[in-house]
Here is the input.
Amino acid sequence: MRRSLTRSRTRPHPRKHRTLGVALATGALATGALAFAPGAAAVTPATATITANCGIYGSGQATLTATQSGTAATITLTSSIAAPLALSADSITSTLTFVKASGGTTVFSGTKNPAMATGDAVTVGPLSGTVAPGDSLDAYGGSLKMVIFGITVTCRAQGPQLPGPFVFD
Here is the structure.
């Protein structure tokens, strides 16, 4: 009996070696997978502001909120411009065009908007678009076109976004 106790302490059973080896290999694979897993995409800044001029429909501050998931991105615009009449949810067709720092434009579009009562802040989005890593987008030089009851309202930024353009990962 004494002999078997000594032997078991100095040399574990072969199945224990295999189990330990499998556990170590699995842990190493999991660690390697985490090291090579893509990180969550992020856009910076997450929010920016502009001063928008919508001609006879008004002008004022607007906040742009951006999100990103891979090459898919969304922008939601909330303005200080009051809705001239009540609007039902998803009744505005919007096209938001940004100027790319590398040249060209990127368009975000959709028919998403909350229901708005007369006098509520006009909000559109999330509007969907496609971005590439490194894209730097600014609303200045672009436009927001909204079609409301068949009437097209075009708004333009009066200066660059603050604190700066959206930069996508």
User: Anything to note?
Assistant: The radius of gyration is 27 Å. Residues 2-36 form one domain. The longest strand covers residues 136-148. The chain has two domains: 2-36, 43-168.
